[in-house]
Design goal:
Blueprint lengths: L9 E5 L4 H12 L3 E6 L7 E4 L2 E6 L2 H8 L3 E4 L3 H14 L3 E4 L6 H14 L2 E3 L5 E4 L3 E4 L8 E8 L2 H10 L5 E6 L10 H10 L5 E7 L4 H12 L4 E6 L8 E2 L4 E2 L7 H9 L4 E3 L2 H14 L2
Parallel strand pairs: 1-2, 1-5, 2-4, 5-6, 6-7, 10-11, 10-12, 12-13, 13-16
Antiparallel strand pairs: 3-4, 8-9, 8-11, 14-15
Helix pairs in contact: 3-4, 5-9, 6-7, 7-8
Length: about 290
């Protein structure tokens, strides 16, 4: 019951010894994540105690992989160092890099996402909450105690709305929840996650959360029409946003009908996706579709 992250995943944390890295490493461990090491060249050879677990610090991602067999890295580094951190992880052969950092220049994101793709490393983010497979593993900053394992897959541009839908559907539960981030350039898209959930035998329904700006949701709709047989329910943030203004962390500019919540809603509904007007209504749609399929 998972995509990209399972209980078998071995996680490194780049930036573990910083304030945010320490806080969220402790939370990941509490959620059952197998955090096998941190990375900090200046503190290599030390260990950091997290309650009942001592986590070693390595000088590089490559050293961490050699010592532990890690296949996931979660990146908590300042924006100026994000590009080099992802490149280092990709060069070391990591399978999945989860980049939490916000405020990264777009040209850096273009460069490291393309580089990672060539190296065979999947990037989730930047500027994202990460992903969680409830009851198995949590890579990032998503609260682990607001849901449980279940049949719903979730892919979202918005961190806050990720949490809200997880809470709204807490009695149903999730296979995996993926926060892909809302920056103009991200390493993993709605379509990537739709494809993975389509292939996951334990995901029965997918929830897609989008927002105004760009055409990612319209492209997702086209993909759903051709490739997705499982039911999809969606929510689009930004119906009340004024046209012609830059809004939100996506820096979305809505001009005319392009990029509007209404245009995205219409594109998704045209391929059979139920679109909620609020997160609560979206959750009701999920419940109705699951009940109808029983």
């Amino acid at each position: 019951m998972a995509i990209h992250l399972t209980k078998e995943s071995k996680v490194l944390v780049q930036g573990m010894t910083g304030g945010e890295g320490m806080k969220h490493t402790r939370r990941m461990l509490a959620a059952g994540t197998d955090v096998v090491g941190g990375v900090n060249p200046r503190k290599a050879g030390r260990t950091v105690d997290f309650d009942d677990r001592a986590v070693p610090v390595f000088g590089s991602v490559a050293d961490g992989i050699r010592a532990t067999g890690a296949d996931v890295t979660v990146v908590f580094v300042p924006p100026a160092f994000a590009r080099s951190a992802v490149v280092e992880a990709a060069d070391a052969g990591i399978g999945l890099a989860v980049l939490i950092t916000e405020g990264i220049p777009v040209h850096d994101s273009v460069a490291f996402t393309a580089y990672a793709r060539r190296k065979g490393t999947r990037v989730i983010g930047p500027n994202c909450p990460g992903l969680i497979t409830p009851g198995q593993s949590n890579a990032g900053i998503i609260p682990a105690d607001i849901t449980k394992p279940g049949p719903v897959g979730l892919v979202s541009k918005s961190g806050t709305l990720t949490y809200q839908l997880m809470y709204e559907l807490r009695d149903i539960g999730f296979s995996t929840c993926v926060g892909i981030g809302g920056d103009p350039v991200v390493g993993t898209t709605h379509i990537d996650c739709l494809a993975a959930f389509q292939d996951d035998p334990d995901t029965d329904l997918v929830v897609l959360i989008g927002e105004i700006g760009g055409d990612a949701e319209e492209r997702a709709a086209a993909y759903i029409r051709e490739h997705v047989t499982k039911p999809v329910v969606a929510y689009i943030a930004g119906f009340t946003a004024p046209e012609g203004r830059t809004m939100g962390h996506a820096g979305a500019i809505v001009s005319g009908s392009s990029g509007t919540a209404r245009a995205k809603k219409e594109a998704l509904e045209a391929v059979g996706v139920r679109v909620g007007g609020t997160p609560t209504e979206t959750a009701r749609h999920v419940l109705a579709v699951l009940e109808a399929g029983r």
